[in-house]
Fold these 2 entries.
Entry 1:
Amino acid sequence: TLEYVLRLWSCVDKSVHKESTLTNSKIRIRYFFSPLALIDLIAILPTILMVFVSVDLRFLRVLRLMRIFKLTRYSRAMQLLLNSFKEESSSLLAAFFIMAVVLIIASCGIYLIEHDVQPDKFGSIPAAMWWAMVTLTTVGYGDVVPVTPLGRLFGGAITLVSMGMVAIPTGLLASSFSEQLRKRRQVFTDAVHEAVEDGHLSPIEEEHLENLRYKLGLSQQEANKAIHNELKNRNRNLYCRHCGKRQD
């Protein structure tokens, strides 16, 4: 609780707010509704409620596990993944909406086909959603299966459709993840290109590039390769391709 209060109070001292036109109160309110601050609040909420409520709320202590999501602050890979989700949020919502529509259609269809034969397993459309969900995600537990020929034909069709449905979000995230990596490498490459304008790297420039490499989450091997390529290209452009003389 004390840590949360201190974070809320000191958030105005962050470097990103030095030139901000917002008041300290507005900055604290904005931080209060940020994802990481809400995770902290949910984690300490059981302790606060136990002070004012006489009901046994010890089961709410499980909410403290929410703090595990704060690891994203220290993991560059997790930040990259979260950025991928943000970039493709609209496309992912569209894909999940289509999956929800297909889920309802599959549930209604299998209910109409199998309800009379297996009333215990397909007693209602919500009950049939379990089979539809397992089939659409290509998990296939096998605890609930259609037994009629028409039901099996319908189940096979849903299985074929599900293979493409599941691949859509996976493909979107994979593509966005690769694009995020490419952008980070490009940012570092541009910084290296600017640093080697004079043909060499000074200690200050090396320190700046190292800090940028760490901030972007790039490996030392990737950074060294980018620096080597830029220096190689820079030195190559200093000499004439035909006579080999240095160009001023």
Entry 2:
Amino acid sequence: MPRIIPIVESDGDMEAVPLLIRRTLHQNELWHREVGTPKKARNMAVFGQRAADFLRYARREKDCAAILVVLDLDDGCPAHVARQLADQVRGLHTDVPVAIVLAHREYES
């Protein structure tokens, strides 16, 4: 079955993000998708420096159909930073869709 593979920052996100994805899939009656094992990026700086490695690692997960990157944005403009990361990821020419979500500090909690 096709899987969405999360890339997250913290141990808490390793549990919370897959649960949130499963709930969203269930609420939208998308029974034909599963959530794979999350990959831990540690923080945005590390992901930015090693995006190709993280995406390649996620892509190796069995039945990977999409990758969801969920990172905390402590400072900066989410729209600007997301655009930069999206451009970087787009340049890697992945063969599966990649979505980037930045949790801004004002809206976390």
